[in-house]
Write a structure and sequence with these properties.
By secondary structure, the chain is α+β, with helices and mostly antiparallel strands. It has 2 domains: 3-36, no CATH class; 48-168, Archaeosine Trna-guanine Transglycosylase, Chain: A, domain 4. It contains 4 helices and 11 strands. The protein has helices spanning 33-36, 55-65, 155-160, 164-168; strands at residues 3-5, 12-14, 18-24, 27-32, 39-40, 48-53, 67-71, 81-86, 92-107, 124-140, 151-153. The strands form 3 sheets. Strands 5, 6, 7, 8, 9, 10 and 11 form a 7-stranded mixed β-sheet that branches. It has a two-stranded antiparallel ribbon with strand order 1-2. A two-stranded antiparallel sheet has the order 3-4. It is elongated.
Length: 170
């Protein structure tokens, strides 16, 4: 019987005893039964969630690790894609990424073997694993309204938008 390693907790898992098997990029990833109950598919989510994020957090977390996360206590629903509205000084939607999976109640200390924030290593997070992070045509803020929470939209509306105002007040 083959043995695999859980991609979340690094425990050894025997074939046939996995909780979930995910295949992406031609690679089979195994999730143990314990971690499987905390893993969600993005398939049943709205198409696009526009998320406000600071430039520093975008550069140091999203670009560097290919993930986006927030505390479990946030009621943020997420989407099959995440569009990133980078706040001051950029004040525009700059990138779009496809969500491959979502882990619930994950401590930051377990995130890709890195402790991203030493002051909150045990706080539980909702973690969105991203692929195909792409720079898109900028959708700038054109008036005083800004994106302060999650905005749900479609890829079509995002592509058509000439400013964030069109997405906020639709």
């Amino acid at each position: 019987m083959n043995e695999h390693t859980c991609i979340n907790c690094n425990k050894k898992v025997k074939s046939g005893k996995a909780g979930s098997i995910v295949s992406s990029h031609g690679i089979t990833e195994v999730i143990c039964k314990a971690c499987s109950k905390f893993t969600r598919s993005a398939l049943n989510l709205p198409e696009v969630a526009i998320i406000p994020i600071t430039k520093e957090r975008f550069d140091n977390i999203v670009l560097k690790y290919g993930v986006y996360y927030h505390p479990m206590k946030y009621s943020r629903k997420g989407g099959r894609y995440i569009a990133f509205y980078v706040t001051h000084p950029v004040s525009a939607i700059t990138h779009l990424a496809k969500v491959t999976k979502i882990n619930l109640n994950q401590p930051l200390k377990n995130l890709q073997g890195n402790n991203l924030f030493d002051d909150e290593p045990n706080s539980l997070q909702k973690v969105y694993f991203l692929e195909e992070l792409k720079e898109i045509k900028l959708v700038p803020k054109t008036d005083k309204r800004t994106i302060q929470g999650t905005i749900l939209t479609t890829l079509e509306d995002l592509k058509r938008a000439k400013s964030t105002t069109e997405l906020i007040i639709k």
